[in-house]
Sequence to fold (280 residues):
Amino acid sequence: MTAKRRRRKQGYKQKWKKGLSAVLLVLLFLAFFVIKAREKTPQQALWTEQAETGKTQNVPLSEENAEAGNGKDSPASDTGEFSLDLVPAYSGQAYTDINGDVPFFTEEEMTTEAFHEYWDLDPLGRCTGAYACVGPETLPTQERGDISEVKPTGWNTARYGWIDGEMLFNRCHLIGHLLTGQDANERNLITGTRYMNVEGMLPFEESVRMYVGGTGHHVMYRVRPYFRGDDLVAAGVLMEARSVEDPRVQFCVFCYNVQPGVVIDYATGKNRAAEDSEEP
Fold:
């Protein structure tokens, strides 16, 4: 082999080694980014695991979780995919997205068979949740009736001049009358601030009502109140919705049961005007 051919052969080998090194380097970077993309925070990992294992089936409170004084967020359901620990502190917005705004419904729960159900009260008399497939069949055909006879737990309402309508607390429907026509159903009414009722929950209820009325389609819908320990007034409600026939409606939000300018004792429902430094 001539010297010229040897140099040419060595040049080919060097080019091949450089090309191989470049390919390996690219593969190394790709592997790194794939690993990073798959990494989850503990909270994201929890949500993903629970969604994949189907822990969102609606079942009544277990006897263990229904016992008063168990120190757990309650009542809601004992599905375990959500707790108040996942909710950021209130910071001036009536609601916050939960689980990336993706509801916890499983594919097995999706149905076009309209229904609505209201779970039993817990031993303290608190609401535990309401669940429905909202459709044209469930929309009310009559005006809302009187609900003043219902006194949900923690009902210690008071008047404050700066609140719309002046009353601090409303009898808040878990599933609004405009979706299922429920009136004085004690399993569907909680003590909720005017702020949570109007600024937090109502826009989501109206969006579902408009969608169902306009399309004739169905929406899986679930609202669960969450209480700290034995509190009689809920810290807020988790609202979930997902349209069945198409992907146009989807949300998963926690609405804060607060009222700017008012300090609330959630254990009893007693309240007072806040000093400037104590406003929620």
Summary: The chain has two domains: 1-39, 45-278.
